[in-house]
Amino acid sequence: xxxxxxAPDAAPGDVAAERPRTPRTREGRAAERVPDPQRAAxxxxxxxxNLSVALxxxxxxxxxxxxxxxxAATGLSRGTVTGLVDVLIEAGLVRELDPxxxxxxxxxxxxxxxxRGRVAGVGMEVNVDYLGLRAVDLAGDxxxxxxxxxxxRASDPGTVLDRLAALAGPVLAALSADGxxxxxxxxxxxxxxxxxxxxxxYAPNLGWRDVDVVARLAAHPVLAGLPPRVxxxxxxxxxxxxxxxxxPVAPSFxxxxxxxxxxxxxxxxxxxxxxxxxxxxxxxxVVVDAGPGATAPVSLEQRAGQDAIARAAGLAPGTPFxxxxxxxxxxDLRALDAVRGAGRWLGLAVSTVANVVDVSEVVLGGTFGLxxxxxxxxxxxxxxxxVIFADWSxxxxxxxxxxxxxxxxxxxxxxxxxxxxxxTPWIAAAS
Length: 431
What we know:
The chain is an alpha/beta fold. The protein has helices at 26-32, 37-59, 67-74, 78-90, 157-177, 213-218, 221-224, 233-244, 300-304, 306-312, 321-329, 333-357, 367-370, 372-386, 390-393, 406-421, 424-430; strands at 94-96, 112-114, 119-126, 130-137, 142-149, 181-189, 192-193, 200-203, 208-211, 229-232, 253-258, 262-268, 271-273, 287-289, 298-299, 361-366, 396-399. The longest helix is centred in the C-terminal third of the chain and has 25 residues, at 333-357.
């Protein structure tokens, strides 16, 4: 039997290394029954870990699992899983669905699903042409959201963050009125967010530099107890995309988000590769045009951002991209040429990235997802022509599955992962 104590091994007969024995008196027997604090701590840690594992099996499943399936997937005993699931149900984190009759003899299986409308994460976003909030529960349902369209180029950070806090008030009040516990908030921003020290370092399209957004938002009473986690919008959008693509094999892909700027994120086995400071994925700043006649290096954003596409389509910069999409759908030749040209520049940039990081799939979101049929071919051709390993495994190109405002969804999901990682505070609060 394996040893469970932390004492060093002693050689047989080594009297000096032997443990002193407690006398077999009434007091000695009582002393033997005193719990070891270290052992109790280890047991508590194991229980927290197992609760997290069981909850993750339910939250991450694409089909509702039964207790038996969770036991088989995790290696935990059926009895242990039953106890863990009962605790999670009582805490309002998991719910039982109607029993399903199975082919083999025995009781019907009871599928398990994340609880609806009990615990939510709130994703917030400030982008160049809108700001808003979205609350998502453990089941992935959007409980409440609000979006305000606005031109936020060269905006004052304090004014914009005050507007965001004002939007947050009714959202949080609605959740509270419905009895929803809010696990926290996360804020998506279109720029460099320092994941080590926290501030937004630079958001060129907003015109913001070195802004302590957390301090500004936490100064508002409505968010004082829910200060946001802050992250790049493309990284959070990629998190939503990874969640939408979850399955037996964790997804890996390069995500490209087309907005006024062009953001990107690398997903490896379902996790976002953030880089040393959290600044990876700035694909919009990849140089795509610096040949003869170019007066200065030209970035992807300058060739394939929303403003560049609108300008090439004969529309004014700042025109809602929906107008570009409408022109494309109407067969407007100039709009079609503008979008397809953006696709060629995009293909050049993503093939460069693919050669560096070795991806097998490129996912197009944001504006590129809206005009996917017109840009896919150019991107796929560039990958086939320019990626050195394309003869053996040319990266595929697919449309985003994460829906509109994916960064808000990703922010809410990032918050909910903290619940999955340690559900014990939510269990204690519900008891």
